[in-house]
Specification:
The complex is a heterodimer of chains A (314) and B (298).
Chain A (H helix, E strand, L loop, with lengths): L3 H18 L5 H25 L8 H17 L5 H23 L4 H21 L9 E2 L18 H21 L2 H11 L1 H6 L4 H27 L1 E2 L6 H14 L6 H19 L4 H15 L5 H10 L2
Antiparallel strand pairs in A: 1-2
Helix pairs in contact in A: 1-6, 2-6, 2-9, 2-10, 2-11, 3-4, 3-5, 3-9, 4-9, 6-9, 10-11
Chain B lengths: L1 H31 L6 H21 L6 H24 L9 H23 L8 H4 L3 E4 L2 E4 H22 L2 H11 L1 H6 L4 H23 L9 H16 L4 H21 L4 H15 L14
Antiparallel strand pairs in B: 1-2
Helix pairs in contact in B: 1-6, 1-9, 1-10, 1-11, 2-3, 2-4, 2-9, 2-10, 3-9, 6-7, 10-11, 10-12, 11-12
Classes of the chains: A mainly alpha (314), B mainly alpha (298).
Chain lengths: 314, 298
């Protein structure tokens, strides 16, 4: 792990670069970066879970909850600004995780993966059948203002983009800080040997539960940001293949750094937009092959290549 | 009353279909400790191969009844060719790694297979509906079912009894049970574990493909048909207990009846009723209904 100050500095510089680049990016690229950041937030939550030794095939649950509550909240609570909408999405997802976590925190390995998948599929089934929420079509989501600015205005049109970058910065710094606390350092210990952690007097179940909630809050914020950027939500967000894509990002990036998911998600979105353009029916093929290659040859993820090289130069 | 009969009959037909697929998933997990995410794709592959071959058979003007044999042959073809290719070409490099890593490996395989099928068969739907209507209908009181559905039930029973006999009644099956209980001791005793793994994966693939091949006449074969099937099969084996063959049978019956009950009485809950049951079972029996805490069974 790099020193805390260097991580924050690195992330702050990245935030600055992303912010300054905004007016120069074409519209599609700005959108692509926003979506990549939103997905990276979900993968950041998965990073925390994977450090704890858990792989969730159901992050789509929190992603969808975040997206839907941002939309429904705006409708019923008369929220017009994007910032409280994202907060609401994150909060709602965190609450859901606090409830289902009571059950989920008891499970490990594939049982954890399967049960989280089951929960996300339950939500998918509910959303598809609820006509008030637009069934399979979903509904449109739009914020009238972002940070109080008009999204059609000269500065406001970068609003969602800037908001995504800010949330990402706070999320990454927050998770990095957290991983350095006593509680955060229990994560790899739980992964290595749960029983010993219990002997030391820590409650594994509580730590896992907490990590579930943190991961859900991040996924909820990611879902709300995606809904705002796309302007639409639909039940696909809760389907298990969506969750699978998040797992893909997490595996591709590896768990060595909080910045890795952002790089991984950006690569995924770039790959996807080029693949859609040139060979739409081979997109998953490419994704699957890359994933296999990473699992077999780079078990620590793409970020580890970068790390190893840096270590080699004195 | 007639609704109840309809629920039961529909449930059993649906359960038969589920059992054939789930049996393959559970045996692969029981022996190899691989929760095969690509199982649904193998199912879809079986359906595609069956639709192509049976379609070609019928177009060539051979005896229509022979198309049933073609369906089964397609499943065998997929199992005996694709199964070993995947096991020898990919999975064997991952033995001994974490169960979760193998889930991810088979997830990657799922992604690859989904697109590979699109490249071979295109994105348009394939139909081969002749075998479905060929046998006529069977009257069930006021209800009338195509006799083909009974074929599905018979196939499931044959698969179930065949597996039971194969595992407990033959020498090879007893070797398999030994491997399930302890891979390392079995290897030390001279059992060729690698061969058993390959045969098991071939068997699992064949069963998935058989499920697909027998379904092909009843549906339009389209891309993505495996995506939903795999999560249903997961629900079945998780309810019954991963790696347990009686569990797969009971799990299929539970899921089959729950779904057909939901379809007839409460259509709003149809999609998630199955996962709700799965979550409930896991809440009280974390390893499923049929898996005892100590020994792994099949």
């Amino acid at each position: 792990m790099t020193s805390p100050r260097r991580t924050v500095q690195g992330l702050a510089v990245t935030l600055l670069v992303v912010g300054v680049a905004a007016p120069f990016l074409p519209k599609w690229a700005g959108f692509l970066v926003t979506i990549a950041i939103a997905k990276a937030l979900v993968a950041l939550g998965l990073l925390l879970l994977m450090r704890t030794g858990l792989v969730s095939f159901g992050q789509g649950l929190y992603f969808a909850i975040g997206a839907y509550s941002a939309g429904v909240g705006a409708e019923t609570l008369k929220i017009t600004d994007a910032v409280p909408m994202v907060l609401l999405g994150a909060l709602a997802a965190g609450l859901v995780a606090a409830v289902v976590g009571v059950l989920l925190a008891r499970y490990r390995t594939i049982f954890f993966a399967m049960l989280s998948l089951a929960f996300s599929m339950i939500l998918y089934g509910l959303l598809v059948k609820s006509s008030a929420l637009g069934s399979t079509d979903g509904f449109n989501v739009a914020a009238r203002t972002v940070f109080g600015l008009d999204p059609a205005g000269p500065i406001g049109r970068f609003g969602i983009y800037g908001l995504a970058a800010l949330v990402a910065f706070l999320g990454a710094v927050g998770v990095d800080r957290y991983l350095r606390t006593h509680l955060g350092r229990l994560a790899p210990a739980i992964k290595d040997n749960e029983l010993r952690v219990e002997y030391m007097g820590a409650s594994v179940r509580n730590v896992v539960h907490l990590h579930l909630v943190i991961a859900a809050v991040l996924a909820g914020a990611g879902g709300a940001l995606t809904a705002l950027a796309v302007g639409h939500v639909d039940p696909e967000t809760a389907y298990w293949t969506t969750s699978g894509e998040f797992v893909f990002v997490a595996i591709l990036s590896g768990t060595s750094s909080v910045a890795a998911p952002f790089a991984g998600a950006l690569i995924l979105e770039l790959l996807r937009s080029f693949a859609y353009e040139h060979a739409p029916n081979t997109w998953q093929l490419v994704m699957g092959s890359v994933m296999l290659a990473v699992i077999l040859f780079l078990p620590e993820g793409l970020w580890s290549v970068f790390r190893r090289r840096r270590k080699a130069t004195p | 009353m007639s609704t109840l009969v309809a629920v039961l009959v529909d449930g059993i037909i649906y359960a038969s279909w589920l059992f054939i697929i789930a049996a393959g998933l559970t045996i692969v997990y029981g022996v190899m400790r691989i929760l095969n995410m690509a199982h649904g794709s193998l199912y879809a592959l079986g359906a595609y191969v069956a639709a192509s071959l049976a379609g070609a058979w019928l177009r060539a003007g051979y005896a229509p009844l022979g198309s049933y044999a073609v369906l089964v042959a397609s499943a065998l073809l997929v199992g005996l060719v694709v199964g070993p290719v995947i096991e020898r070409g990919l999975l064997r490099f991952c033995y001994g790694r974490d169960e979760v890593v193998l889930v991810l490996v088979t997830y990657a395989l799922f992604l690859i297979l989904e697109d590979a099928m699109k490249l071979v068969w295109g994105v348009e739907a394939w139909f081969v509906s002749e075998p479905y209507g060929l046998l006529g209908n069977l009257d069930f009181g006021p209800l009338s079912y195509p006799l083909y559905s009974v074929v599905m039930v018979v196939a499931a029973v044959v698969v179930g009894l065949g597996l039971r006999w194969g595992i407990y009644g033959t020498r090879q099956g007893k070797l398999l049970v030994a491997v399930i209980h302890d891979r390392e001791v079995s290897a030390a005793l001279g059992i060729n574990v690698n061969r058993i793994f390959m045969v098991t994966f071939m068997l699992g693939t064949t069963l998935a493909a058989l499920g697909g091949a027998l379904t092909a006449p009843t549906v339009s074969v389209v891309p993505g048909m495996g995506v939903e099937t795999i999560v249903l099969a997961f629900a079945v084996v998780v309810i019954g207990g991963l790696g347990s063959m009686p569990g797969a049978a009971i799990g299929s019956i539970i899921v089959g009846l729950v779904r057909s009950g939901a379809v007839h009485w409460l259509p709003q809950v149809e999609l998630f009723s199955i996962y709700l049951v799965m979550a409930l079972v896991l809440a009280f029996r974390p390893r499923g209904l049929f898996v005892a805490a100590e020994a792994r069974k099949i």
